[in-house]
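Researcher: I'm preparing a figure for a lab meeting and need a structural model of a single chain. I don't have an experimental structure, so a prediction will have to do for now. The sequence is pasted below. Please return the structure as tokens so I can convert it later.
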Amino acid sequence: MHELGIVFYIIRDVKAAAEENHVEQVSGVVMNIGEVSTIVPEYLTDCWRWAADKEAMLRGCELKINIIPAVTYCEDCGREYGTVEHGRTCPHCGSEHTYLLRGNEVEIKEIEVPNS
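Model: Understood. Here is the structure written out token by token.
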């Protein structure tokens, strides 16, 4: 389960951003997770709860996940299509000259702080 390692990196980055901005408490973290990123959102959430509650700044902090659909681009016909449904072969022209446009992201989108 690599989600725990990813959570440690998220916590490191969130704490650094919070400290840089003189924030003492973080109430939420919004993540963009690609559909084909190999991350299991439920595992990430479980690991987050365990690890975040060990940090005073993140105690009770909610992890919110946006799933980014995987989209592939075909170089031969110039069209985009859903990666999960069709894989590497373009459903429009049958070409295998394709590449992933989006859907592999793992990024912190927002860090939320309590209203003061």
